[in-house]
Design goal:
It contains 8 helices and 2 strands. It is mostly helical. It has one domain: Fumarate Reductase Cytochrome B subunit. The longest helix is centred in the first third of the chain and has 30 residues. The chain is globular and about 50 Å long.
Length: 247
């Protein structure tokens, strides 16, 4: 709510005299000033944590082969397969399913596509001097729309599975926080899609504030939410690859 309120205030205080698309509501320079520190500061916090983790597990120097193996395992979500492909018993102790794995994959690839979309827009803006808005067949949209859809589908699936699950199989005290984070991920994808659909209408400023508020909250909460487990999981897979070589 704080992030959302801050973005509404920013849109009111920093509205440019002119601009196209989203930049008519909030200047590009203002977006950069807000989101660059919000993106980089959590990465610094995570980097310190990963450094301590690697020291704790006795990590060796990382080689390209270690990274390739780790990314392959992460891409398949190998460790959610249950070992023999039966899935996990997240919902019920004696019943295994791959539903959670598939929803995780949808969220992961959806997030990566959205990140790639933003990165493509950044390259187009700064390298090729092609500022937004971009057409429906442009790289940011070709990557971002499927990414948003996967993020929403996967997030809703994870939320639904969480309501069906036996809470005693997890950490009951963290249930609410984990659900809130899943819903934040889902809202980030959904508001992005709604904002794109509303392009050219009077609803853009309000929808832009809501979407950017979700993105800002997601960035700032990354080191302190379940989002950070992606970084540590990848670090653990790198360590697994190192140990497999030693064996």
């Amino acid at each position: 709510m704080v992030a959302l309120g801050a973005l509404f205030l920013a849109l009111q205080a920093l509205q440019p005299p002119s601009g196209e698309g989203f930049y008519a509501a909030l200047a590009h320079s203002a977006m950069v000033a807000i989101f660059t520190p919000a993106f980089l500061a959590p990465l610094v916090v995570i980097a310190f944590g990963l450094r301590a983790y690697c020291r704790e597990v006795g990590g060796d120097p990382v080689r390209v082969s270690h990274l390739i193996k780790a990314f392959q395992d992460a891409g398949r979500l190998k460790n959610l397969s249950g070992g023999q492909g039966q899935g996990c018993n997240f919902e019920k102790g004696d019943r295994y399913s791959n539903a959670r794995r598939h929803c995780h994959q949808a969220v992961m690839y959806g997030f990566l596509l959205c990140f790639a979309s933003t990165s493509a827009g950044t390259v187009l803006h700064y390298v090729f001097d092609m500022p937004a808005p971009y057409g429906p067949l442009s790289l940011p949209k070709v990557l971002g729309v499927p990414g948003g859809l996967l993020l929403v589908i996967g997030g809703l699936g994870l939320a639904w599975l969480k309501t069906k699950a036996d809470r005693t199989l997890g950490a009951p005290a963290l249930w609410g926080g984990e659900m809130a984070f899943v819903l934040l991920l889902t809202a980030t994808g959904a508001t992005g899609l709604i904002l794109y659909a509303a392009t050219g209408t009077g609803a853009v400023p309000a929808l832009l504030a809501v979407h950017l508020g979700c993105v800002l909250a997601l960035f700032l909460l990354t080191p302190y939410s379940k989002m950070v487990h992606g970084f540590y999981r990848l670090a653990a897979l790198v360590r697994d690859a190192q140990q497999a070589v030693v064996k």
